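Question: Hello, beginner here. Any chance you could explain the protein record under this note? Any guidance would be welcome.
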Amino acid sequence: MVSVYVDEDVSRFEISVFYATVGEVIVEKDRVDLREYARSLVNNLVSTYSVDRVKDIPIIRFYRDIMWRLGIDPTKVRVSSEALLRRVLRGGSFPAINNVVDACNLASLETLIPISVFDLSKIRGDLRLRKAKPNEVFVSLDGTERLLTGDEVVLADDSGNILNLYPHRDSKIASVDMSTRSVLVIAYGAPGVPQSLVRGAVEKSLKYLMMFSNAKYLSDVLKAK
């Protein structure tokens, strides 16, 4: 099983990370039960939040604060959970991708915790949350390549592949596709965010993966060392 570590120079930011692996998933483009569940969740979110007050939600503020500390302007680059919530509130619909990604996005919307889901077969060795190295390459989901400055916090595997720019963007490198059969789910915390909520975001993702992707093998939820 893959392990996740947090480097010492990142741990000083008090970023907690929880993760679990899931096996025997079946990736589908559309599921009626997931679509109906998402519609109900969206209706609840629309009645609870307004776009102009999203920045004032306490959990969102914690992530905005750490982004400022990392040199990222959260008014221009949104933490992934905030970006997802804003998209839902503006459009009134859930942005479906596939059932595996959608299951984790449901959990992210409910908890407001940023969550990644990766194809386990595309990860090389273990993963580490660390500072980027100058001129490392990050490949976005649309295939665009970006050279990093060395100030970013990234999640990378043992081969050097960067899978996530904390806390706002996943890479294409280990993205879930129709051939995916096992996945790694990771939830990222921030200073002020209860670790129980970060762990709960992974647990909720596992619940939805069982419901909507027929997952049969679920590991324990672990905290990154």
In short: The chain has a mean pLDDT of 97. The first strand starts at residue 4 and ends at 6. Residues 4-223 form a domain with the Phenylalanyl-tRNA Synthetase; Chain B, domain 3 fold (CATH 3.50.40.10).
